[in-house]
Amino acid sequence: MSDRRPPTTDDLLHWDREHVWHAFTQMQEYEPLLIESGQGATLFDTAGRAYLDGSASMWCNVHGHRHPRLDAALREQLDKVAHTTNLGLSNPTSVELARRLVEIAPAGLEKVFFTGDGSSAIEAALKMAFQYWRQAAPPQPARTRFIAIGEAYHGDTLGAIGVGGVDRFTAMFAPLTFDAIRIPSPGGPCPHTGRPAPSLAEVLASLAAVLEEHRGTIAALVMEPLMQAAGGILVHPTGFLRGVRELTAKHDVLLILDEVATGFGRTGTMFACEQEQVVPDILCLAKGLTAGYLPMAATLTTAAIWQVFLGSHADRRTFFHGHTYGGNPLAAAVALASLDVFREECVLESLAPKIVRLGEHMARLARLDHAGDVRQCGLVAGLDLVADKASRRPYPWQEQRGTRACLAAREHGAILRQLGDTVVLMPPLCITLDEIDRLAAAAEAGIIAATTS
Ligand SMILES: *Cc1c(COP(=O)(O)O)cnc(C)c1O
Known about the structure:
single chain, 453 residues, alpha/beta, Aspartate Aminotransferase, domain 1, Aspartate Aminotransferase, domain 2, 5-stranded antiparallel beta sheet, 34% helix, 18% strand
């Protein structure tokens, strides 16, 4: 129908309500906002109103929207081919990306399995770890279980929620998932009770006890390093990651690090695990991999793990797992260009003053009447809204204070995303100091609006 008129904004708003089922959204209460374009750290709606992208388009955006280098890389790849399969075939762009990822990843991670998104990077990691023990020399088929951290978030597919610990997302599906062994998170107060987190020593002691009790039956421990993202920006005490690596190594348990949220500069270094000199056995990357342009993920592992999957076809040692768009050349092209931008624009080197500035604003916001605990890790920070500041008593969750604060911040020119009653600031890494000031001011206005009525 070539004579169809272009839809008006009103048409689109109507069709959005009628047809689009939004992720993690109560559609009965959904407040539509159509973002039409972006530039740098700013997004524009269909009426031309500007908003700072305070959630980095859900952790993904790194160098800003419409970065000329990234746009050009995509166009160049389009002139070659958009997609070919990586099932038994290859293409130059994804080969080059695999090589570059190995160069920047912690030493020893040499093999790159391309997946489609964060959840599928985790699924691949879990299955890889499980199959590894079946085919190891000697085989240890009793190693079938996983250890996970309380309040962990590893995605929404069934394997990923099996190792997830955010009950409000996963409790409903418990009958469908496998039963991970959980240790408490040492990162920040319990989001339900406001009680302080257990100490580093307590958590490491409970991990040591679990490893002892389940000796010989654990395939891997999976965790988000330094900071748990969707659990509420739960920042771990220094030494936790190192302690976990030492204990897992001692018990011959594989360590899977989920850097889907922390990877690509978010915590101040390219990968969070660098800060405690930890090398995992398996590393999952996604959100920032293509700098927020296209879905792509990767599961990296060591030659030691890869090697047990080798054999003749008849040996049946193959990793029978894959995703149709794994290694997609368009996504690979933009991921490669993003790594170039990291280098050319000295992105990591530019972060320190931005992290300091965000910290100064968080310290100020922490003094607001209904601000509870404040946590920051690199260029991401979370602030808990509480009913009573002195006792840290949470608001009744039904009041949705976090959601209301973020919606109110839109009126002040920022898109923010809450995690329960935690208001989160996580701008693209390219944000300027002046933009951080404006983002914090919008967050402050939103918080005040949502906590004074
Ligand atoms: C977002 C996230 C995932 C899931 O990624 P998707 O691309 O949404 O499937 C997994 N792990 C962590 C730490 C995440 O933040």
